[in-house]
Design brief:
- This protein is an alpha/beta fold.
- It has 11 helices and 15 strands.
- The strands form 3 sheets. Strands 3, 4, 5, 6, 7, 14 and 15 form a 7-stranded mixed beta sheet that branches.
- The longest helix is centred in the middle third of the chain and has 15 residues.
- The N and C termini lie close together (6 Å).
Length: 352
């Protein structure tokens, strides 16, 4: 279906991806749902693209806050679409405008609160994996104009997480050394943002091919942790023994200790992911010895998102979309994520 010619043509039935009768990829189904209508303060968006995050894979498998999950679940937090209709008293956007979803629908600015953290798309709020979706007008934002729909769909979680970790939570200066673990969405955004800010970058991966791609994107140093697991020594060597100013920690249980060994005294470790597990015995001596700040990161606010988009427009940053699947072929997309063979982001397209 070519959406360019039918933004305002209603469908006979709106389709969505849902988990209805259990968790696991076998239970992810395309279902027919009634067309939604926007209420006061809400907007109806026809989705054009959505991207996958590791959180989405955990959710589909039933490994993400399963005790609090209530079926059915419509997954995915990150999407791009066109406003088709607005409800009463909507002033932020108009029909026909392209918008990005926001991960937290109710975190506009300032500090996070329990209420703002409970407004995440995908769970507990139905997510972007549907042809038509209603969002709060405060839960969408106009993206940088030069980006494609697929690129816009990569921003709400991975892009904003990297942005917040580097520029909101950490205090860095040009020339500082930033370590980025792996070549998934957050780390590749971190590489692109860090280079734009004038930071020195070191990226790790188990794949020489992916490290070569990272080099082409501007990485100053690369390290294959499969051939040499002791990557903290490589970081120390690259920094004259001082250690990194900042580490983007996405691995979790099997990498946090190495991050503590690699960070400088008073450095910053942004804890973002649990790719290798969420539980590990932590040697607190390393934290005390380095006086490192270890801070968890949970995406960010609309204010942060809009600042990030201004920087993307100014620096001409192009998000890396590695693999694209039709949205109805979501299982194959999740299997690609599960295999870990992507570089940057995996995107679902609603226009094919």
């Amino acid at each position: 279906m070519a959406l360019l010619s039918c933004y305002f043509t209603p469908l006979e039935a709106m389709r969505a991806l849902q988990l209805t009768d259990g968790f696991g990829l076998d239970h992810l189904q395309v279902v027919d749902l009634p067309d939604p209508e926007p209420g006061p303060g809400e907007v109806l968006v026809r989705m054009r693209a959505a991207s996958l995050n590791y959180r989405d894979l955990l959710m589909v498998r039933g490994d993400y806050s399963r005790s609090a999950a209530t079926l059915p679940i419509t997954p995915l937090s990150d999407g791009c679409g066109v406003v088709e209709k607005v409800g009463a008293r909507v002033t932020r956007v108009r029909p026909g405008e392209r918008v990005s979803t926001l991960f937290f629908q109710n975190w506009i600015a300032g500090r996070a609160t329990p209420a703002s953290q409970a407004s995440a798309l995908g769970q507990p709020i139905p997510g972007c994996a549907r042809e038509l979706a209603v969002f709060s007008e405060n839960g969408v934002s106009r993206p940088a104009e030069q980006l494609t729909d697929q690129q816009v769909a990569t921003l709400p979680c991975a892009g904003l997480t990297a942005w917040r970790a580097l520029f909101v939570d950490a205090r860095l200066a040009p020339g500082d050394t930033v370590v980025l673990q792996g070549t998934g969405g957050v780390s590749i955004f971190g590489l692109q943002f860090a280079k734009a800010a004038g930071y020195r970058t070191l990226i790790t991966s188990s794949s020489d091919e992916k490290l070569a791609r990272a080099k082409a994107l501007g990485a100053d140093h690369v390290h294959n942790y499969r051939s040499d697991p002791d990557w903290a020594k490589a970081v120390r060597a690259a920094t004259g023994g001082a250690g990194a100013d900042f580490v983007m920690e996405v691995g979790g249980a099997k990498t946090l200790q190495e991050s503590l060994k690699s960070v400088r005294i008073g450095g910053h470790i942004a804890v973002i992911g649990v790719l290798s597990g969420g539980v590990e015995v932590l040697q607190l001596g390393w934290m005390i010895a380095t006086s490192a700040k270890v801070q968890g990161v949970s995406v960010g606010s609309r204010e942060m998102f809009e600042a990030m988009n201004r920087a993307i427009a100014l620096h001409g940053i192009s998000p890396v979309v590695d693999k694209v699947f039709a949205w109805t072929d979501a299982r194959a997309a999740f299997e690609a994520m599960q295999a870990g063979d992507h570089f940057g982001k995996i995107v679902l397209d609603f226009t094919t």
